[in-house]
């Protein structure tokens, strides 16, 4: 059996689990929608964007980006559960490539990411968000969001194996939440103290969120600097670097699994 075919079969396995137990993906969607409504409607009235941009238009690309990043928790948890339940052992005993297992996990998670993006876009449009961009720019924005999610998948696989003994969710939340909010996702970096804004500007989440705002015609909250001038390039480069680092690390961790 080829690696791609085996990976596709494992992808279908993941999707069938969600179909039989839809609570996990549904709660994930509801959590993202809740965050959007809290920041957009509850707190949004007190938020200001430099340049007098509309905060809701500023917020939506950031929330789309955060949703892609927070997906690392679902990946890590699913991978840990497979290891603890012996599913990974069964895969390792089969005549399939080790890469097929990770590709299958990635395929299922990417399908989930697309559904989450679609849901947030619809909710955003319903509450007043507007897109001022060509179809080509919108497609590129979605591609950058999915590129970030793809990179997060490999971090999730690595962490899921590394923390397979327990505490995966807590460990991932401790890592992901500060990184997610220490960014330009929900507030402009220019409203932060200089030293904090400099750190935030180099955050991969800031790069993707700013690039998506630029491509969708939404306010960036920036008036210059590296992030403002090269957001799209950074949004391409960061996922590429993350994938290049964590894909081989996750593959090595998978090969070294022992029970």
UniProtKB/TrEMBL annotation:
It comes from the Bacteria. Pfam families: ABC2_membrane. Coiled coil: none annotated. Residues 23-257 form the ABC transmembrane type-2 domain. InterPro entries: ABC2_TM, ABC2_TM_bact-type, ABC_2_transport, Nod_factor_ABC_transporter. GO terms for cellular component: ATP-binding cassette (ABC) transporter complex. This is Transport permease protein. The lineage of its organism: Bacteria, Bacillati, Actinomycetota, Actinomycetes, Frankiales.
């Amino acid at each position: 059996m080829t690696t791609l075919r085996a990976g596709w079969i494992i992808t279908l396995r993941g999707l069938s689990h969600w179909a039989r137990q839809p609570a996990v993906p549904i709660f994930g969607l509801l959590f993202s929608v809740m965050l959007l409504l809290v920041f957009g409607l509850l707190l949004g009235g007190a938020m200001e964007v430099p340049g007098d941009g509309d905060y809701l238009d500023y917020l939506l690309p950031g929330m789309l980006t955060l949703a892609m990043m927070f997906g690392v928790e679902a990946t890590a948890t699913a991978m840990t559960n497979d290891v603890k339940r012996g599913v990974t052992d069964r895969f390792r005993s089969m005549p399939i490539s080790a890469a097929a297992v990770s590709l299958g996990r990635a395929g299922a998670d990417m399908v989930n990411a697309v559904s989450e993006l679609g849901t947030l876009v619809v909710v955003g449009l319903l509450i007043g968000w507007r897109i001022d961009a060509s179809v080509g720019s919108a497609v590129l924005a979605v591609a950058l969001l999915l590129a970030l999610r793809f990179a997060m998948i490999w971090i999730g696989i690595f962490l899921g194996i590394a923390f397979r003994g327990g505490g995966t969710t807590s460990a991932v939340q401790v890592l992901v939440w500060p990184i997610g909010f220490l960014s330009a996702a929900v507030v402009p970096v220019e409203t932060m103290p200089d030293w904090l804004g400099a750190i935030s500007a180099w955050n991969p989440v800031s790069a993707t969120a700013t690039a998506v705002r630029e491509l969708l015609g939404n306010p960036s909250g920036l008036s210059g600097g590296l992030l403002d001038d090269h957001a799209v390039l950074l949004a391409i480069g960061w996922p590429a670097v993350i994938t290049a680092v964590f894909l081989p690390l996750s593959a090595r961790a998978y090969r070294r699994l022992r029970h």
